[in-house]
Amino acid sequence: MIFDIEMIKEVYAKFPERVNAARELTGKPLTLAEKILYAHLWDGNPDSPYTRGKSYVNFAPDRVAMQDATAQMALLQFMQSGRKTAAVPSTVHCDHLIQAQVGAKKDLANAKEKSSEVFDFLQSVSNKYGIGFWEPGAGIIHQVVLENYAFPGGMMIGTDSHTVNAGGLGMVAIGVGGADAVDVMAGMPWELKFPKLIGVKLTGKLSGWTASKDVILKVAGILTVKGGTGAIVEYFGPGAESLSCTGKGTICNMGAEIGATTSTFGYDAKMGEYLRGTGRAEVADAADQIAEHLTGDAEVYANPEQYFDQVIEIDLSTLEPHINGPYTPDRATPLSEFAKAVKENGWPAKLEVGLIGSCTNSSYEDLTRSASIAQQAIDKKLKVKSEFTVTPGSEQVRFTAERDGLLDRFDAMGGVVLANACGPCIGQWARHTDDPDRKNSIITSFNRNFAKRNDGNPNTHSFVASPELVTALAIAGDMTFNPMTDTLVNEAGEEVRLEEPLGIEMPPAGYAVENNGYHEPASDGSNVEVVVAQGSERLQLLDPFQPWDGKNIEGMKLIIKAKGKCTTDHISMAGPWLRFRGHLDNISNNTLTGAINYFNGEAGLVKNQLTGEYGSVPDVQRAYKAEGIPSIVVGDHNYGEGSSREHAAMQPRHLGMRIVLVKSFARIHETNLKKQGMLGLTFANEADYDKFQEDDTIDTLDLNEFQEGKPIHLKLKHADGSEDTITCEHTYNESQIAWFRAGSALNKIKAENKA
């Protein structure tokens, strides 16, 4: 079955004309990213060129994808939009609410029992509004999208930051908050600041222990977690063409960790091979007809410095395997230097768990390369020293891998195959440990490794590497082991060496699956009832946020001055809190509980200015809200880094917060704040961060004159009677200011649909 083939053909029918119009308009050759962006303008053919990093542009994405944790809030909002069906092809994927405990079968059954209310809601609301539904166990959203929906030259948005995975099939695929998804499903234009462009030229060819994962681990080390903010990363060159399609997906997937809007590759033979191998020959044939338009122009790739804002060059032939971490995905260490880094930094050398799979590295190729290492452990009589888990990306990959004997190899080496779900990658992991607070090391082939991300333990040192390197280290049980140079002692007391991994890009017998887990929506959902149980602790219908009264906001209390890294995990933790993603009031009880308070160094413990006592952020915010007192958060650089979860914007808003003032924002989070009617501001002078004191009360001075490009001033009234006035910048345009006035973007959509 090929999904949405008529839509894809329609996109391709318009593509050449729009690309040629854009090339003529701009007067220059175009990158692939520019071609896709200009081909998806809301108003059709472009009538003026756009300025990278400055112009706000309305786009018309081809499709929307949502995972179960974020889909709940997105669809609760969509139900208020006034639409009867989704305006573009849309899907829901149930992959976040399955906790890894003992193994796939039992874990999946347990999840279906515990979260049946949520799954039933998602299936019914999907059925009603014409949205495709992928049941629990069908697979991780990004792998399922790559296998079924992604197509070269397309544009999609998804309510998960790793939506960018589809760039491996030549898409511009962008992670967003649920309110953005509502825009597109409601038939409205989707707004994005025209991105800057970073080019990564790949030469040479991978060999030995080096994998596609090492490309992005290297890039993350170069660009850091915020170096890609506001930019699309476009990979090109002969090295790019040599990478498998799923390898390209791995690289794009983890581009979220450098803050990039998205990453992409030009259409090539590897993509065509993957499309045909996954039953989409008709899509490949259609792409072949316009192949010249589905990659950057030759002049661009010949002289990239003239057309990209930044260019990075990597020789795959000399690229070394990397291990990134701990605590941040951009701390990149070449394998040859890693043992020294472990010793110098005092990281725990004993490896307790190795975990492979996830949305980043769960392809057939990944499993074959890892399985080749697992087979060596069996053949060479090596006893595996660490726990080892495998998370297949989809039921199609799992079924095919089982048929081909790959899973048997992992089982024989002592590994555990988990459900086709996110699991440990997002903290959905009942880790086996006798001390949940012990200082320890784990290594994964996942994408994120922030503190407490996987198991809730701040002392877990989480590292990221390729699946095959994770497998080798798990066999050794030692973080200082280098399989390229070191030997291991087997059960017979012999020194043995692990040989280079061997992989197969596409299954020789083709992909197979008995039940892919997909449910087609009703052709007419008008009689489908969506039920949210009265008094449910998991689901709650939404009440609209109140519109702005047009006046200055006065008497705000400083709720927290966050110190250092404050990701969406710090603002709205995942793990056990995922069960409340459809209940705004209940999940608000985790708001900013992971943020470090500048004034006491404690996580989420803040002063209640009404009582003088200390309490959790949500408790103190609720106390202020009960008294009608608004609040403000102050933060550091790259505030809101990480997941696309809009809960990190909705929860503070629900609790009475009006302003988030920081040194800089991560892109998705800043947009989410705007969508929810919050005021996201940045310091005109970063040193003003230091002026905020614990007992401050804050007023806006000129918010009643809110307009595009005009700074906003705040007055800080300190407890000793002194005052400071500071200048704040913002990036709101007129339409975003209209969201603020309406109380949220959804309020504005609802009003327009009623008109």
Automatic annotation (TrEMBL):
Its EC number is 4.2.1.3. GO terms for biological process: tricarboxylic acid cycle. GO terms for molecular function: 4 iron, 4 sulfur cluster binding; aconitate hydratase activity; metal ion binding. Keywords: Iron, Iron-sulfur, Lyase, Metal-binding, Transit peptide, Tricarboxylic acid cycle. Its cofactor is [4Fe-4S] cluster. SUPFAM superfamilies: Aconitase iron-sulfur domain, LeuD/IlvD-like. Residues 34-477 form the Aconitase/3-isopropylmalate dehydratase large subunit alpha/beta/alpha domain. Pathway: Carbohydrate metabolism; tricarboxylic acid cycle; isocitrate from oxaloacetate: step 2/2. InterPro entries: Acnase/IPM_dHydase_lsu_aba_1/3, Acoase/IPM_deHydtase_lsu_aba, Aconitase/3IPM_dehydase_swvl, Aconitase/IPM_isomerase, Aconitase_4Fe-4S_BS, Aconitase_4Fe-4S_dom, Aconitase_dom2, Aconitase_mito-like. GO terms for cellular component: cytosol. It comes from the Bacteria. Residues 556-686 form the Aconitase A/isopropylmalate dehydratase small subunit swivel domain. It catalyses: citrate = D-threo-isocitrate. PANTHER family: ACONITATE HYDRATASE B, ACONITATE HYDRATASE, MITOCHONDRIAL. This is Aconitate hydratase A. It comes from Croceimicrobium hydrocarbonivorans. The lineage of its organism: Bacteria, Pseudomonadati, Bacteroidota, Flavobacteriia, Flavobacteriales.
